[in-house]
Amino acid sequence: MVDMTEESSSSFINKQLLSNALLRDDIDTFRAEYMELHPYDQAQFYMLVKKEIRLNLYYYLSPQEMAEVFENLELEQNKYEELLAEMSPQYAADMLSHMYADDAVDVLNELKKEQVVSYLAIMDDESAQEIKDLLHYEEYTAGSIMTTEYIAIASNQTIRSAMYILKNEAPNAETIYYVYVVDDDKHLVGVISLRDLIVSHDDLMVSEVMSERVMSVSVGDDQESVARTMRDYDFLALPVVDFQGHLLGIITVDDIMDVMEEEASDDYSKLAGVTDIDAGDLNAMSAAKKRLPWLIVLLFLGLITANLIYRFEETLTEVAILAVFIPLISGMAGNTGTQALAVAVRGIATGESEKESKWKLVAREAGTGLITGLSCGLLILLAVTIWQKDVYLGVLVGISVFVSLFVATLAGSLVPLLMHKLKVDPAVASGPFITTINDIISILIYFGMASLFMGYLI
């Protein structure tokens, strides 16, 4: 038996039955089993089979059925281009036109511009125009992740007529849990939940049942801000309006979950000093190109540290034991600075820092730096004094650790807050960057203190 899949699939997928049906070209058996699967499992099977088998799937599944599969794919960048190239251009265009507009835009954004133009040219006019309207919105904004497949009703109609509209438009809507109410000029004026529509009397007017206190976001709002709003209010969907209050689309919770994962991954990548932590399919050369820029910057910052140590060569020559404690002090400063950085970046990313004074956050971190610095300074003072039987050396190292930890903690919290104030992504203040900066600061502190204690150490 030929191994049809590259790895094990979900327990809900009858791999053997589907594989045998594909081998025998038994389309009836295959479709009977495959179409009973959850769309997620359909997508998993599609990605697990080899290319030559996927080519058969395009004959077994209609573009509309393949659209549902594509909506449930979780792929790395550039993978969409490879998969679409396996299909005929017309099949791919038809499939994209059957996808929800926001999902189709996500796929097209991964392609070259000439490919996007080609697919739009052979789509039906209505789908192409809908996708074009979304493509022009700036990436990472509410407009770029919204969908136009929503249900809107007028405020001056009855619940009976609203239910008629709902039943007719529900098959094409991405969600029906919220029905939005607009006036004659398409301004968003209210919202009705599906429950309220069902339990309300048929002859009541929509305006009598709807809630006028409807939360919305602007089409230009940052997607991270939209994600925080949906998290805070536990919405399943959120309407998107323009600057005049016209309803343009909605953002659903599944899209927000993707945004939250994307933003978290992006922040983690920057904290690690790499540009794309998710790029697992990159070869060694591509991965090196992504990491080299940061490493080169850090290399030259490291030369500053080396130059500082060189300038204190005389001090090290006279008291060689000082060199033993350089890694300890710089390492401690780097670690505590990274801890403070992580707290500050998380506060900014989750919006927690907006709910309290920035100075309160800095003061809290400064207090933390004082306590941790004092504790570690006293411990190392005792350890060095007992080890080297030199109280002055112990005091020197202890004070250096205390001051370095305090300054590093303060820098770790202030740098991302300053970057946020300057409209720069605070995650750019990555772990390796703040660690290298704190190395420089701690070396200056250590050798500065050593110069003061020199008379007692010789």
From TrEMBL:
Q: Where in the cell is the protein located? A: Cell membrane; Membrane
SUPFAM superfamilies registered for this protein in UniProt: CBS-domain pair, MgtE membrane domain-like, MgtE N-terminal domain-like
Keywords tagged on the record? CBS domain, Cell membrane, Magnesium, Membrane, Metal-binding, Transmembrane, Transmembrane helix, Transport
Q: Chief localization class? A: membrane
- Indicate the transmembrane segments per the record: 292-310, 322-345, 366-387, 393-419, 440-457
Q: Where is the CBS domain?
A: 146-208, 210-268
Under the heading PROSITE patterns, the entry gives:
CBS
Membrane association type: Multi-pass membrane protein
Q: Which InterPro entries match?
A: CBS_dom, CBS_dom_sf, Mg_transptr_MgtE_intracell_dom, MgtE_N_sf, MgtE_transporter, SLC41_membr_dom, SLC41_membr_dom_sf
Q: Transmembrane: is it a keyword of this entry?
A: yes
UniProt-listed Pfam families = CBS (PF00571), MgtE (PF01769), MgtE_N (PF03448)
Concerning its family, UniProt says: Belongs to the SLC41A transporter family.
Describe its assembly: Homodimer.
Which purpose does this protein serve, as stated in its record?
Acts as a magnesium transporter.
Its recorded name reads Magnesium transporter MgtE
The organism is: Bacillus spongiae
**What lineage does the source organism belong to?**
Bacteria, Bacillati, Bacillota, Bacilli, Bacillales
